[in-house]
Amino acid sequence: MVNQPKIKMKVVGSDRDAGEVANVIVDPVTKFLSHIVVRTEDGGQRVVPLDQIADVSEGVRLRCSAVEVSGYPPLCRDDYTTVHEQELAGLEARLDVDPGHALLPVPEGDRDIPRRSFFTKFTIAINAVLALPLAYPVFKFLIHPMYGPFDNTWVTLARTDQFQDVDTPKSYRFRKTLKEGYLERTFDKSHWAMKASPETLEAIYQGKDVEFRDKNGDVYWVNRRNVPYVVFSGKCPHLGCGYKWRSTKKYAMAFLCPCHLSIYDIAGTVLTGPAPRPLDVLPTRVTPGGDIETVDIEFKAGLVGRVRVI
Amino acid sequence: MNGVAKQIYDWFDERAGLTELGHKMLNEPMPGGSRYTYVFGSILVYIFMMQLVTGILLMFYYAPTADHAYESTQYIIHNVEYGWFILSFHFWGSSVMVVMVVMHMSQVFLWGAYKKPSELVWVVGTILFTLVVAMGFTGYLLPWDQRSFWATTVGIEIADKTPLIGDFIGQFLRGGPTTGAHTINRFFVLHVMILPLSIMGLATLHIYLFRKAGPAGPYKRDHKELTKTSEYFFPRQVYKDSVAIGIVFLITCALAFYEPVELLGEATPEPGDYNPVPEWYFLFLFQLLRYETFSGEWGQIVGSIVIPVAFMVWLIAIPFIFRNPERRPWKRKFGIMTWAIILLAVAYLTYDYSITEIH
Fold it and tell me: Could you give the C-alpha distances from B187 to B108, B184, B194, B269, in angstroms and in order?
């Protein structure tokens, strides 16, 4: 076997100088050189097979003449890649050539560009056909628990005889049982209830009864403005924390939310802080036995208007 | 290595290219040589690995359901040997990670190391930053105590304020209208699968892009000097990284040891005497939303959505805003000042929170 021809080596034909080595071409199977690319004196590049090389020392000496070199096929650069772009494992162990300069033939079946783009498009199409029908079931799967009906069950919060004084709200706990998916849990929740003085009642209702609606828009309960028992939702209308009835520095007794420091007066009106609306009045009914009942409604926090969420 | 060991190594090396791979990874030339200022990236890889290990350990006992999450966490703390330590290490690890992310980003910003050709390294880094914060937020719910419940409830109410898509985001994260059984499942999946896998993928991309762009090196640009003092990543930088990692490990251990996690009561929508507080690195936003400027419906959108989103957009856009190749900090007064103002604003809001009385 001859020495390995190197790029830029002088190429000498059997008659005269034929040019220089412009590139070497690697056989992807044998992982050795199969051809050299000779840049002839007229600037053309010819692909000369390795068996035409007689000897390699200072330069490359060919068996054929310089004229015959011009008869070999010209280099069609598009039919080759460099070994940078194409993975060829273990090449460096077998070949002493700068990998950026060595050319690898593109497989003949891959030289046909229209076929290549056909395969690309068809592959995308097949994958789209596989993926698109999945998108809808996956979306429905993920949003399954998100939008359920409202629960209009009445819960007992307090008794009328617990209210000796007017305008002294208290937090009343109740046990709530909630079934979420397969899991049923019972936990504590609380709302604020009080017996309101006529002035407070007027400040809360401002002369209007309050209607409560179901998901489909039907009114299922109306709080009459002359019923003195009032329930405020325990959820702060700012960002949903739990507020408290306590003494405050500036406003004496008031509802204060410890999160973002919204303060509301006895009628739920915002005195200070970031809250966008007054406290939320909940449906209230008094049973003949004297129980004060409410529906555990929550409205979305952070809005001026009331958007019911449960 | 000698004899049989070398033969075994050579057998694998010939087939797997171990030596070459090792050299490729460790022989990364660092212009200007190794520095202690470059340790933050490695520290973050280390903390992430520790969070992964401690997180997997916690899953041996933790049950991600609303009826057992609290009990199983209490069991880890009070019954399982060293459970308190592994849980507390994981808890404090998240805080340490947030601090280190901020240090890492500040170092890169001050050194001007995000500039061409490293823009994409920065962009991917900012996404990693949001994922780390999201890890903190989702992990906070999992013990299912009062702290968890209220931080999540308020946090999702904030996301809910996003125009148009806010309601869907809120419902999607909660799996319904209120924080409950579906929420804990969803946060669990996010915390142990979706976010960690995303972080692993993006961190790999981050490091690949970094290696492709090359280390920025010191901001002084004397090429001869930099080439002369250049060093490989291994051994000197690896040594410095290890020293820093050792210190971070000791700090995390000390925090876990002296301030172990203690749970409040089990999560319930009845707050009792509890005043909700988010994790400390969200306190600045918590305090911001108390101000009258951000009151009412629109003020709230500005405070909870517009400002954070604008900040993130600005953060991602930094390499495209500050395009001057100048890297010396004293020549980049505007950029350095904006960075300082943001850090000071966060520090001030956190301080203001700490001195605000609830009355």
Answer: 31, 5, 10, 18
Rounded to whole angstroms, the Cα distance separating A161 from A296 reads 22
For B112, left (φ over 0), alpha (ψ -120 to 50), or beta?
A: left
Of A248, A276, A301, the CB nearest to B359: A248
A146, A172, A264: best mutation site toward chain B, by most B Cβ within 10 Å?
A146
pTM of the model: 0.92
Here the contacts of A20-23 (C-beta below 8 Å, separation 24 or greater) are A21/A60, A22/A75, A23/A75, A23/A101, A23/A102, A23/A103
Domains along chain A? 10-110 (2.30.30.240), 154-295 (2.102.10.10)
pLDDT in tens, B124-155: 999 999 999 999 999 999 999 999 999 999 99
Q: Give A46's strand partners.
A: A38, A74
CA atoms of B98 and A43, how far apart (whole Å): 62
CB B66 within 8 Å of CB B144:
yes
β-sheet bridge partners, residue A219: A213
How far, in Å, CA of A116 to CA of B254, rounded?
Answer: 61
Radius of gyration in angstroms for the set of CA atoms belonging to chain A, rounded to a whole number: 44
* Residue B120 CB burial class (10 angstroms; 0-12, 13-18, ≥19): middle
| Residues of chain A neighbouring B64 (CB-CB closer than 8 A) | none
* Residue B231 dihedral angles phi and psi, to the nearest 5°: -135, 155
Series of mean pLDDT values for 10-residue runs along chain A (310 residues)? 80 92 89 91 91 90 92 91 80 72 84 80 94 93 93 94 93 95 95 96 95 92 95 96 94 95 96 96 96 96 94
Please identify which residue in the block is written with the tokens 């359901």: B65
The strand pair at A53-56 and A60-62 is best described as antiparallel
Superfamily of domain B33-274: Cytochrome Bc1 Complex; Chain C (1.20.810.10)
Percent of residues in chain B assigned helix, strand, coil, to nearest 5: 70, 0, 25
DSSP single-letter state for residue B236: I
Q: Cα–chain-centroid distance for residue A83?
A: 38
Query: Residue A310 and residue B178: Cβ atoms within 8 Å?
Result: yes
Q: Do B294 and A274 touch (CB under 8 A)?
A: yes
The answer to whether A45 and A53 have CB atoms below 8 angstroms apart is no
Specify the amino acid at residue B84: W
Token pair belonging to B301: 């959108």
Cα–Cα distance for residue pair A58/A5, rounded to 1 Å = 10
Q: What is the distance in angstroms between the Cα of A284 and the nearest Cα belonging to chain B?
A: 20
Q: Domain boundaries in chain B?
A: 33-274
Rounded to an integer, what distance in angstroms lies between the CA atom of residue A197 and that of residue A230?
10
Cα atoms found within 13 Å of the Cα of residue B236, Cβ hemisphere only? 14
- Estimate to the nearest angstrom the gap between the alpha carbon of B158 and the chain centroid: 21
- Residues in B touching A180 (Cβ below 8 Å): 66, 175-176, 180-182
